[in-house]
Design a protein that fits this description.
2 strands; 67 residues
Length: 67
């Protein structure tokens, strides 16, 4: 899997792929990530809605809205 990814993280293709990422609900392996991206997904609770809101926040589209 690491070779298929070119040896780099699936999310930020600049860091070495060293952590096997899996879905905590199904156990299915999704890919191999760097430490930071693996931790980031974990800290965001692998929640797509949280991740989308984080993207919106970083892109400045949410402004000062609270939700």
């Amino acid at each position: 899997m690491i070779a298929m990814q070119g040896g780099v993280c699936c999310i930020c293709p600049t860091a070495p792929a060293v952590h096997v990422d899996h879905c905590h609900e199904t156990g299915r392996v999704r890919g191999v990530l760097c430490l930071n991206c693996n931790m980031g997904l974990g800290l965001l609770k692998e929640n797509p809605d949280r991740i989308r809101r984080a993207i919106q926040y970083l892109e400045g589209t949410r402004g000062s809205q609270h939700s």
